[in-house]
Sequence to fold (329 residues):
Amino acid sequence: MLSMKRIVTLDDFIETYTKLKQRGLGFISSKLNFNTTKRVKTAFNHKNIQASNWWIIPKVNERWRKLITGDENLSIEEHTVNQFLKDKQNLKMLSLGSGECSSELLFAEHSNFKAIICSDIAEKRLNKAEKIAKEKGLDNIRFQIQDANKLSEIEDQFDIIYFKASLHHFRNIEYLLENKIKPLLKNDGFLIIDEFVGPTRLQFPKHQIKAINKALQLIPKPFRKRYKLNLYKNKVYGPGLARMILADPSECVDSSSIIPAIHRHYSTVYEVGYGGNILTLTLKDIAHHFIDLNDEKEEILNQLFDFEDKYLKNQPSDHIFGIYKPNAT
Fold:
């Protein structure tokens, strides 16, 4: 259920203008296609997407690793293998909506994996991943250009089914996880997610938008200049439903159902939140200022991290890393 409905906001106009500057008129016009699958594909099928989002900040990535693994220098993939897969061999993993497969390529470097299948509709991103795999000499990973919604065509069973920032693009999460994913998992297999699990269609509640704007004021004006624009970020309104559906009909289409559905049909092995409730929208379009840090910018990030940590004491995390086993049917 949507927590609040915003049809159109000022952020929608700014976002459209930003995308025009970053990706050009062709990208904007592609959103007028009546075919929803093609509109989804245009959101991801680019070799080089220029943007300034929170995930490009090295210190943010350190924060994720610290929250998920306990060690800011330990990768999530290494942590997963060492803690949960170290005694397992000949593993078969299916990654759905794998994109550029950055995480899957790291898993493939471990001898535990016999086969990793990466599946996505964005062929340009898969082609890029396949090139990297060949350069690294990884022969246990392969790439399939496939609509991940067509799971009925998959006949095999897997030790791991992996969703990294892709599960929130699926509709009917409850039905998917119970009737499509569970049959593909071995009885002792793992469902692993690294996901946005917050409000559907990014319709954040008023208290969250209010908190985000308080956090934004912790950032001095010079560092609020938007990427590739002569505009300063002074207030966040949140995305409107109209643009969400037009830009990418799959974006967060049923995201709020993810954790409740998993908890109904799977047993939790490991689950930890790594926030994003405040940082995602606060740093959107201004994250580029915080890639190379000096003392001032590092202190700003520390203040933002503290602000989000306090917010998370009373709110569930919008991003979750979790490992689960299927319940017996």
Summary: The CA atoms of residues 215 and 307 lie 7 Å apart.
